[in-house]
Amino acid sequence: MTEYRTYRLSTLERLWALSIGCIFCFMAIWVTYRLTIMAIVVTPLGLLYPRYYARAMCRKRRDKLRQQFKDALQALSSLLSAGRSVENAFISLENDLILLIGDTQSDLIRELRVIVNRLNSGEQLEVSLQDFARRSDLEEVGNFADVITICKRAGGDLVEVVRRTSQLIGEKLEVELEVSVLIAQKRFESRIMMGMPFAFVGILGFMAADYMQPLHEGMGIVLLTVCLLLLLACSWWMNRIMDIKL
User: Fold this and answer.
1) Phi-psi domain of 102 (left: phi exceeds 0; alpha: psi -120 through 50; beta: other)
2) 71 belongs to a structural domain
3) Which residues contact 55 (CB under 8 A, 6 or more apart)?
4) Residue 21 sits in which domain range?
5) Is residue 4 one of the residues assigned to a domain?
């Protein structure tokens, strides 16, 4: 079963990440210093990019899974309101969710198929949901699984409790989605801000090489190095600020 807390890059993804990382390091140093040897020496730093890329892909997959889980809760609430039992609602949920998502091979669809297969094998629903919550490491899935487990053990109107819990979790996810959209916008703006100094230096280097020549020798190299380190520190700090755990 898939462990959503980690992401394993395929061979093609790893090669693509390595290429992008090495090319970026080479171009950034060459545009800044116009020293080919220095750019070649720094290029191996791009080998660290696949690790960052894997974390980004893991976060993207979990965000997509969270959004699909919100859609699943809405569909589940509708099925429960129609008078179905919780188990029968999960069995019928896949067809309704495919219409909402439009992807028959998405992570959540595969998880639903596993849950249904476990139900057909006689396994309890809460066991499958707890396993899914553990592997996904999503707070919403964990809360939903806890509600199912408590209701199964303590009794009560399970259908009404699950329906109400689905609505509350769905509203919470909608708020988090709005926040994530704002964060994504600011993250895009920060990337543009970090790229502008390289673009500015590169344009001046091509259009006014004589003007930029003092920066490529002597104390100019020291000044460029200090500015580059400050730019990297600023980029790291902005990423820390926008790394909001929803």
Assistant:
1) left
2) yes
3) 7
4) 11-242
5) no
